[in-house]
Amino acid sequence: MDKGNIAKENFKAGYNCAQAVVLAFKEELGIDAETLLKLSSSFGGGLARLREVCGAVSGGAMVLGILGGYTSPTDNVSKTEHYKRVRQFTEAFKEENGSIICKELLSGVKTDSSPVPDERTESYYKKRPCAEICEVAANIIAKMI
Known about the structure:
Layout (H helix, E strand, L loop, with lengths): L2 H10 L4 H8 L1 H4 L3 H8 L14 H14 L7 H22 L4 H4 L16 H6 L2 H15 L1
């Protein structure tokens, strides 16, 4: 199964959008699932359901950071190159989906920014594009790495 389908299935299994994407790259990242899930748990629903930057985008940025991020605060060359890669990812995501902002991606879907997650029902999955958005994000990352 390709990374996009894995991310899509992860979301359908109940993981948030960031977790779904990050977990799809578990083998490449060399980090255990529990750590990855905890690391990405805050970013669902556009950061704790605030509906800001899409969690799938945040998850993709985390993958890029773990695989090729910088570590020295004074290495501006590495920092610049990493930021360029993250921007390449976000540009491709935006081209495919029209935005990187959760509330814009969910326009037309009744949402709120309450910290209480919506119940994952069949109706929830039918009206939200989130599983497919996770698929797109993971496929873009897979092509980049």
